[in-house]
Design goal:
This protein is α+β, with helices and mostly antiparallel strands. 24% of the residues lie in helices and 27% in strands. Bound molecules: zinc ion (2 copies). One zinc ion (ZN) binds next to loops.
Length: 161
């Protein structure tokens, strides 16, 4: 039987790297969680495991990890313009030709952030004409609200001088 010890430090470990399957203890692993890349659509297979040894993380995950964090930071900074409230402000923004649609997020803020992420990924610096909707579903005795939204990616014209 294979020994369940960390391939790096030799400590007991039942967890293993999602890619190479080498036993890797929590201390030696990169444990980013399976949900980490949830805004990436579709999520490449290699990025879905959430638990990696250092070698696999450095070689196969970290370039995407860094890109993802960079896009996510821009998305978090983004101003969001709602269709009902801000139609005047956005008249002169340069709009993308396609609309972003996201569906069925249990969390409202995640739903907005997902739209901002998709816009940031295509190098837009804002989202406009944002409209949201929700629906209730029953999960046993629980009621869950799922949020959906649409938006147009846009660039604020920064050089009015
Ligand atoms: Zn270890
Ligand atoms: Zn590995």
């Amino acid at each position: 039987m294979e020994k369940q010890t960390c391939s790096i430090c030799g400590k007991k470990s039942k967890k293993h790297c999602g890619l190479c399957k080498a036993f890797t203890c929590k201390k030696c692993a990169h444990d980013i969680g399976k949900e980490f890349f949830s805004f990436w659509d579709p999520i490449p297979e290699d990025l879905t495991h959430g638990y990696y040894c250092n070698t696999c993380f450095v070689n196969k995950v970290s370039p995407d990890y860094n890109t993802y964090c960079e896009i996510l930071n821009r998305a978090k900074e983004m101003d969001v313009y709602f269709k009902k409230k801000h139609s005047k402000e956005v008249r002169l923004f340069k709009k993308a030709s396609s609309i972003i649609t996201v569906t069925d997020w249990p969390d409202y803020d995640d739903m907005i952030l997902h739209m901002a992420f998709l816009a940031a990924k295509d190098n837009y610096n804002t989202i406009i004409n944002v409209e949201t909707s929700s629906r209730k579903i029953h999960d046993g005795s629980y009621k869950i609200i799922l949020w959906s939204g649409t938006a147009i990616p846009a660039n604020k014209n920064i050089s009015f001088l």
